[in-house]
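seq:
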Amino acid sequence: MLDAKARPAATLRTPDWYKSATRWTQLTLAEDDPVRFDPALWIDIFKRTQSNATCLSAGGYIAYYPSKVPLHYVSKYLGDTDPFGTLVEGARRLNMHVMARVDPHAIHQDAADAHPEWIAVDKDGNKRRHWAYPEVWVTCAYGDYNAQFMPHVLEEIARDYDIDAIFANRWQGHGVCYCESCRTRFRAFSGHDLPIVADANDPVWQAWTAWRRTVLTRLVVDWDETVKAVKPHASFIPNMGGASLMEFDLSLIEKHCPFLVVDDQGRRGTEPIWMSGRNGKRMRATFPERPVILITSIGPEEVPRWKDSVTSGPEIQSWIVDGAAQGMLPWFTKFNGVVPDKRWVEPVTDAFALHADLEPVLSAMTPTAEIALLDPATTLRHWAPEHRREAEMDELGFYHALIEAGLPFECLSDQVLTPDQLNRFKVVVLANAACLSDAQCAALTAYVERGGSIVAANETSLRDENGRPRDEFGLADVLGVRLKAPPRGPIKNTYVALSGDHPVASGYDGAERIIGGTQVIAVEADVGAEIPFLYVPDFPDLPMEEVYVRGEATEPAVIARQVTGGGRTVHIPWNIGRTFWEVLAPDHGRLIANAVRWALGGPGRVTIDGLGVFDLSLRENEGGLALAMVNLTNPMMMKGPTRAFHPAGPQRLTIALPEGRRVAAARLLVAGTDVPVREEQGRVLLEVPGIELIEVVHLVWA
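struct:
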């Protein structure tokens, strides 16, 4: 039997089933698995990992059960077996929840011959062969294949098998499809022909992203209704990727998706481990109460796509644990039911066991922070998915700077800028929210008038929600600036000079200037604003004999204001976030941290003193507080895979106590030991002796 911690509560086959589905095993079968894999091995893995839910390959591109739906391709190795049904029965014997996986992104030749309109078409009018397996065809996600054919598959699976949900992977399409159906329907929607180039500033591209969002949202609703018509307690659950819900109508997602699944299976290239937890922050920025699951691959997530491989154990554990520390439920995926390399099993088992141990405390608490980093969905949705990471660079730089500064923070979606959401935070950081509507700007202005603070940078509010340039910053009044000239760049060899002794410019002893940005915006500061940094006039980077300053630094490069309502604003009119992300110059990290700390107007809720880099997550409820500290200190922190854990030494913490609270007990949940504390001036002081991968400080109020 499963350990009690892994056994679902009395929610089996009820609409609340997902509330006890907190650790997931996914098995994605290969076509020859029916004659090669051992189902009993996987039932044992369910037990070892304390998984209480599973996602299993069912159909779509290939059916792993004897499907009767015409043109639904059944594995040629199936014979008289039913691997999907066998795994479902095994999981149900363990009282596990079960979700069936479908993948509708490709079809075989027989379906293509019968329905050529199901095939996606490229911009040259050619039907799209699969880019990795040219023997099959890529489907159009926006037409009849998904709208008419796939509901029959979903209905059959829901009718014939004991499942709680159907999960779809690669259901959202692969860019613009130029088939006749898409051409006709997009023209009826927008009056335009389909866009040829993914240009965030092109009104036609913006119209296509809006049309796609409408089509995909409708698809979620239709598929969910199809599943519920057969099994009322069940749901259709779309794979959300890492898109922060920007591609969907939020009201319909709220109604039809009881939980959210993020497919960000591991880091790539020089991404840091905190990318895992970032997914959780971004999802709850829109739906703070909704469970979010993070899919983790056991193999490396690099461009060559070694999908049936194994990465290092510490890498797997770090990705799972950082996501869990930021509130994401763990889900691991294995491609291919055969297991020639078992080195992943123990790391997954250990990470899942750690989640099971921490879950009772952390799941009873609500994430909290004084600082919010705005998730600029209004801006990012104008970008094609393949270009979105470039558009996120400013935000990623601010995210990393806050991590290094030891400042706990949450994300706040610009799609839900209500007073209740904004008032949760003392400071809202807008790294480069270029596109903001008048209503969004008004909400942020009212927030500052109520006493909130803002740190804004680069092109924030220079465009409206449709991407059209403004003649003035939408937040000009609240930031105390006026636009003198539009953004200029890319440029080289730029600098900003320190000006005065403002706290935002502290910590640069010995320096008169620091590196500037690669894109700058000329602004004029309102009367009464303070100017901690000034632009140094441009000068050449070659010939070397010409590399010298020609004039005085007089134009504002950082503007700081104290606002009548009690809040503070800082405006940095250049791309400091992107520059920090690309260069990692410590001066930029310091400037970002200084700006946020000054905007807070006092010491933060948590301070940490000790060597190391940590991803912090603060949670609390009426009974206490928990601070999760994921140790990112590692020579492979920004280039994976992590080879081993590098324990951090002692960390001295102070944590502000809620008014009227005293500490009755303090415990390190991972170490399993009590820790002495003392209270001084409304703060609790304690020391964590050391951290290998994660420690959770749990304070219980008297």
